[in-house]
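Reminder: ligand-aware prediction takes two inputs, not one.
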Amino acid sequence: MIKILSGASQIITVDTHGTNVKRGNDLNDVGLLTGYAVVIEDEIIKDIIPESSVKNYTAEEIIDLKDKIILPGLIECHTHAAFAGSRANEFREKLKGTNYEEIDRLGGGINSTVNAVRNSAIDELIKIIFPRVEYFISQGVTTLEIKSGYGLDFENEIKLLKAINYLNDNFPIDIIPTFLGAHTFPREFKTDHDGYIKILTRELIPYISRNNVNGKLKKLAAFCDGYCELTAFSPEEITKIFSTAKKFNMDIRLHTDQFNSIGGIDAALNLGAVSVDHLEVIKNEDIVKLGTSDIVCVLLPGSSFFLNHKYAPARDLINNNAVVALSTDYNPGSSNISNLNLIMSLAALKMGMTIEETISAVTINAAKALKANQYCGSIEIGKIADLSIFDTCDYADILYNVGKNLTYMTIKNGDVVYISD
Ligand code: NIG
Ligand code: FE
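Here is what comes back for the chain with N-(iminomethyl)-L-glutamic acid:
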């Protein structure tokens, strides 16, 4: 079936000329086209043609996008949307001046969400996460990553991953599950790190990487993630866990350099991680190392904003040729923000990124952080027809309207999956 998207004021293709990544100056080249239409055949982008040629095509459907713009479907590559409960009490404490690391030491933080998750049945979790996924789709998101990490024992990590897999099966967008058992040490293992690491490496990783779902062998998670920080895992502990993940053919990603720079970047580079996420306190020499690698630097300005903390040095990373992506880091403790438009505006206003750089960072480069950049993240012939349509004539409006959702339509695999009222 042929469908044509016609009449749009702008098409922001984020064309990569086949490289499927953007770095350095190239981040600013968002492939702006005016006077063009997008031809979709089934779930694939078949062609990008001048408006004058639309009449030559026999299409089953022509969608009129007058006064609208077309972007690639947005890729949300780092969320902790699979959580239960609320940490509004910590938010109050934070406003009085207690910082995030202190709250964690005082018994709040990640482990308080762990209690809420352990006390929720899988059906309840699915019900809680469901509207969060809908909200992302209403923002033009066509690929959404969700991490576990609030179960922190065998039963509850698997419960979270099964809930995320269920949502992937029941939503039209791609929901990518990531295993974050190495988020922090659960309370019962605070003084027995080796005991918990054994559960991760001997029980959870082997099970997740070859789980039998409905008679088919299927990984319960695409990635293994961890948190390298003084309050969580050391680089040596991360290396132990990730070496096992690699043995079981899982790709790895790492939260690092959020509050302390303790060697996480070297560990991630040595282990061949797909991304390093956070980087608020990254050292200059590490910026240079990242710039000469293909690893994706996922920057999370929402957590800097929410915690009143430093922003990651986006300009230095870009100037050093690093592959930079952006994400909400949506979670209940350090970034209770699920608005990707707001993140793009923060990246421009607080980290000095250009409007174009932020667009590349939530499309092709975010797709690379999920190893999905070969088939989505840009409007290029042959890629999957994942598109987001915004109700404006100028793409600058997306960031200029801070926190406002201008999404008109979300298209996934060639089908309209959301349209605003
Ligand atoms: O990415 N840094 C660790 N994990 C989350 C926060 C999780 C929480 O506080 O619940 C993050 O910022
Ligand atoms: Fe995170």
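The domain at 2-73+378-419 is CATH 2.30.40.10 (Urease, subunit C; domain 1). The first strand starts at residue 2 and ends at 6. We will return to this case in the review session.
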